[in-house]
Amino acid sequence: MKIGCPKEIKPQEFRVGMTPNAAQEAVARGHQVLIESGAGIGAGFDNDAYVAAGAQIIDTAEEVFATADMIVKVKEPQAVERKMLREGQLLFTYLHLAPDPDQTHDLLESGCTAIAYETVTDANGGLPLLAPMSEVAGRLAPQVGSWTLQKANGGRGVLMGGVPGVGPAKVVVIGGGVVGTHAAKIAAGMGADVTVLDRSLPRLRYLDDVFGGTFKNQYSTAGATAELIQDADMVIGAVLIPGAAAPKLVSRAQLSTMKPGAVLVDVAIDQGGCFETSKATTHADPIYDVDGIMHYCVANMPGAVARTSTIALGNATMPFMLSLADKGWKQACQDDPHLMEGLNVHAGKLTYYAVGKALGIDVVSPNVVVKS
Q1: How many Cα atoms occupy the beta-carbon half-sphere of 201 within 13 Å?
Q2: Structural domain count, the chain
Q3: Among 239, 271, 299, which residue terminates a domain?
Q4: What is the predicted pLDDT for the residue at 212?
Q5: Which residues pair with 4 in a beta bridge?
Q6: What pLDDT shows up at residue 356?
């Protein structure tokens, strides 16, 4: 199979869809790997590293898309890239379709087959291709939040760990999954007073058993959230409903109950955001003010630490990428029901229920299209 990896063109996205190690593995299995020139520079991989791995360097994205049977990326294809997709081509990347009707429409129109990293599952009910980036984003969230909290950036001017005689910042993390757990660990490590909210009692028991004393946890209700954010210096939104739009857990009206200069960090922004006032931002212009509350809503947070993120993502995606290349997408999905969960689009049909529900589009079962 011809596997193509174009350079990411989303603003300030420095990750790359394939590492040289992944390219080497694919070439060793008899596949042809096509890398757009300069695709790996942002993550610290130059063209020579890919050539040494056996890959071919291609001058333009247009040629990569025109030649490859499978396109491997990091972020969802941008509008100009979606025009280059063709019928029968396989796209393997993050998609986050539920809050993005334009992208969904374009993918359906293209006739391609699109498998989304974020909806591939595992035997434990986890999301193995989302987890590494969730870990990165979770660990980044208190870091970028503490920067936003500085007075020069519009924040309250509160130090995360305080100093002797002055209390620490109060941080509320909404969601106790992968993002929330890593965010809470880092925020607590910075010395903040941290409370994690979650609706799963087993998850809260786990957090208490493993991290008891490091940070607090509380059952998540609308009332508990409303009460805690009033006293918070920072609120980190870390909720996820796989493949679906994120629920809005803090309304604009509630901003008036918060402390002026408090910070909202919305890690769920890829799925539409979990605060009513969230809108996607970039690393070039990451924060904005709504009613005196600072918002950090960068849609590709892990791109800020591109080398770490690229290697972590590549470790997770490589086995699936090789399976798709070795077997073709139909056989690979038939052999692995967890990979089947990643199928979102095929030949003009939507195949993921949560996306269809969010966008009001009819859905065809992935089992039906695989067997057709």
Answers
A1: 0
A2: 2
A3: 299
A4: 87
A5: 34, 71
A6: 95
Task: Please state, in angstroms and rounded to a whole number, the distance separating the CA atoms of residues 243 and 192.
Answer: 32
Per-residue pLDDT reduced to its tens digit, 227-242: 999 999 999 999 988 7
The whole-angstrom separation of Cα 358 and Cα 179 is 23
Specify the 3-state DSSP secondary structure of 181. Answer: helix
Amino acid at 272: G
* pLDDT (0 to 100) of residue 25: 98
146 and 57 share a domain? no
Domain co-membership, 201 together with 293: yes
State the distance between the two ends of the chain, measured CA to CA, in whole angstroms.
22
Cα–Cα dist 214/1, whole Å: 49
- 8 A C-beta contact, residue 69 and residue 330: no
Beta partners for residue 282, in sequence order: 285
- Residue 124 maps to a domain: no
Catalytic residue among 193, 198, 270, 336: 270
Is the torsion defined by CA of 313, 15, 96, 279 positive or negative?
positive
CA distance linking residue 18 with residue 322, whole number of Å:
11
Report the C-alpha gap between 205 and 152 in whole angstroms.
39
Within-domain flag for 83: yes
* Amino acid 216: pLDDT: 96
Residue 146, sorted as left (phi over 0), alpha (psi -120 to 50) or beta, turns out to be: alpha
State both tokens at 318.
Answer: 């490589």
Same domain, 311 and 252: no
State the pLDDT at residue 270.
87
Which helix H or strand E contains 248, and what residues bound it? none
How far, in Å, CA of 295 to CA of 272, rounded? 14
Residues of the chain with pLDDT under 50: none
Judge whether 96 counts as a catalytic residue: yes
Residue 149, H or E segment: none
- Entry field: residues in the chain: 372
> Nearest Cα to 10, choosing from 81, 89, 96?
81
Sign of the C-alpha dihedral computed for residues 94, 96, 97 and 102 taken in this order: negative
Catalytic residue among 31, 96, 182, 295: 96
Tell me what pLDDT residue 360 has.
95
The verdict on residue 313 lying in a domain is yes
DSSP class per residue in 129-177: TTHHHHHHHHHHHHHHHHHHTSGGGTS----TT-BTTBPPPEEEEE--S
3-state secondary structure of 16: coil
Determine the structural domain holding residue 40 and report its residue range.
Answer: 2-119+306-371
What's 302's DSSP letter?
A: G
